[in-house]
Amino acid sequence: MESLTFRHTTQKPLSGTKAQAITGVVASGNLEILLERVLPPDAFEIAIETPIAGYGQVWEAVVADFVARAQPGGVRISINDGGARPDTVSLRLLQGARLLEA
Amino acid sequence: MAGPDRDCLSWFEASARQRLDALLDAGTFREAIGPAERRMSPHLPLFDLPCAFDDGIVVGSGALDGRTVFVAAQEGRFMGGAFGEVHGGKLVGMLRAAVEAKPEAVLLLFDTGGVRLQEANAGETAIAETMRAITEARAAGVPVIGLIGGRAGCYGGGGLIAGTCSRLAVSEGGRISVSGPEVIETNKGAEEFDSRDRALVWRTMGGKHRRLIGGADAFCDDTVAAFRAAALDLIGRAPAFDLAMLEAEQARLRARIDRFGDCRDATEIWARLGVNDPEAVPAMDTRAFEETVARVEEARHDAR
Lengths: 102, 304
Fold this sequence. Notes:
The complex is a heterodimer.
Chain A lengths: L1 E8 L10 E4 L7 E7 L5 E8 L5 H15 L4 E7 L4 H16 L1
Parallel strand pairs in A: 4-5
Antiparallel strand pairs in A: 1-4, 2-3, 3-5
Helix pairs in contact in A: 1-2
Chain B lengths: L15 H8 L6 E3 L24 E8 L2 E8 L10 H17 L3 E6 L9 H20 L4 E5 L8 H7 L3 E5 L9 H8 L9 H8 L1 H6 L5 E3 L3 H13 L6 H18 L5 H8 L12 H9 L10
Parallel strand pairs in B: 3-4, 4-5, 5-6, 6-7
Antiparallel strand pairs in B: 1-2, 2-3
């Protein structure tokens, strides 16, 4: 297993007040994403556990793109990965942010 | 999963969380040991396998048509919904809590291939503890209703646990057995059981067969609304749990072996049950199938 952690500073907090959300399933080509609103409003952190080693740069790029699009300030995301492709990861992240905004 | 399609959500396609969310009265579900507590398998990392935050089972309480129920839902897509140490511990803990709290029922949303091989000893123990906890809940007067219609079916130890429930509801896609198709083929050969013959798998282990021989007590369409209606109906007619009932169940199982033990195919059993056109059963819609079931005496068995 490879553990990756990325931190970002955002321009604004994620809208809404929901404290927690979870989406996805740990299955082949899929992943689960747990979102918790536990950080200062301008902070974002993501911790990834993946069985597929060596893709740190891809994860970093996908996460940076998500942060730029969603501005998920205040949120800590934890991921259990089942070998999802970058496009799946990207969609799940946006889906998770939408759940937390609801 | 709020919205107009909540009721017609496919049970087979839905995740464990979606099933619970749509099954219970809106907004009533309270999860115990939720994903944020991160009670994950201590064994899977040893095999370099990813964990799930809830270890593949969601447990808690909620309301079903205003009645308090305790619930557990297995996630069939995470490791085939298999029982591991934490997974089993959450289920057993919920059942033991039900003995104390005495909700109006416990609902078990099975979706499992059995024991997780990576933590087999813990998983086998969990199966045994779950069966004991179910009997204790039933003895305390709490009906335990199994709902089976997930993609993993209800196999291995899950099939044994289902046998200890008060009542079972199953859909066409749901399958109930102990040894799965691939297991039988591996041990006995493709001549004994060809696991790639899907029609054979479904007519031997599928919901319609289980309903016809009385192994399941309700047959549902593959929608959350159908399972909800079945659960409410079955809670209302859960059997007693006493010695007389268990002896009667044992006698019925013995009679089943005597009557069908020499059959080579489920269609032979259906013919012996008095089904006019056994070959037509797999293609029947729910209504036609219900009419067939109504004419079969054994479908009213309490024996699993």
